[in-house]
């Protein structure tokens, strides 16, 4: 879905919808209070307080790398938003596509084994049985099963908390104070100026990792390349800003809904439009995994990764919950 404009401001409509927001918040509070099954391996949850994308997937990718650096084998559990698989199912990119597994599990699969499960607890049990030494929950902060040892909340510094109201009156899944009270760590993502402005407007009572999404170095020089850019992510404007920062000339920007399917008729229209504009088609990694196989070769992709000047807050949190490895193991 695309975020309605009133989610970023006050007014009569958010006030009118606020009783529904209160009901939504109460349902979330009941759900997280239920408790969940305790597993025999550490469980780390990466989630957010807002509806839509804040950068959880890049955080999961970085978390995988840092857990592996400690000598442990992580596996990821995802609900597979947008996919049809009920699970628990181990995601095989050679066998599953985005319509089955969802786009984010396919994006994470090259980094670590990924399980799709509508029942997160069952998915975590399957991962543990398959040999996971650490389980990473992709999303699921507003649920309680399975029990988790570390909860990480991801915040988009530029979007912030919108109008501060709970869905449908605003973008929040729950009140900010309630969510931050359960968090162990915050990853604040955005340009330095945006992070600074966010901190001036908000108090973060938990340890924070400051980070920024940056293009992965691929050796391609984007300077002056005319592109028709499309993006079906939480905030397409972030992708378009990244392209401009690389030096590309965006002759047309096409924002799509988060997780929006990319059928061939839509891609044909985009391809024809790009040809008329003498431009190349370009999209995000997340869009690329939703492309039909025949369309992938002709579309440029810009991968991004999370960069942080200081990971110590995350590393300290992991050291508290992960079992030490024997010397020489």
Automatic annotation (TrEMBL):
Keywords: ATP-binding, Kinase, Lipid A biosynthesis, Lipid biosynthesis, Lipid metabolism, Nucleotide-binding, Transferase. It comes from the Bacteria. One of its GO terms (molecular function) is ATP binding. GO terms for cellular component: plasma membrane. One of its GO terms (biological process) is lipopolysaccharide core region biosynthetic process. Pfam families: LpxK (PF02606). It catalyses: a lipid A disaccharide + ATP = a lipid IVA + ADP + H(+). InterPro entries: LpxK, P-loop_NTPase. It is an enzyme of class 2 (transferase). Pathway: Glycolipid biosynthesis; lipid IV(A) biosynthesis; lipid IV(A) from (3R)-3-hydroxytetradecanoyl-[acyl-carrier-protein] and UDP-N-acetyl-alpha-D-glucosamine: step 6/6. ATP binds at residues 50-57. Coiled coil: none annotated. Its EC number is 2.7.1.130. Transmembrane segments: none annotated. Transfers the gamma-phosphate of ATP to the 4'-position of a tetraacyldisaccharide 1-phosphate intermediate (termed DS-1-P) to form tetraacyldisaccharide 1,4'-bis-phosphate (lipid IVA). HAMAP family: LpxK. Belongs to the LpxK family. This is Tetraacyldisaccharide 4'-kinase. It comes from Hasllibacter halocynthiae. The lineage of its organism: Bacteria, Pseudomonadati, Pseudomonadota, Alphaproteobacteria, Rhodobacterales. The gene is lpxK.
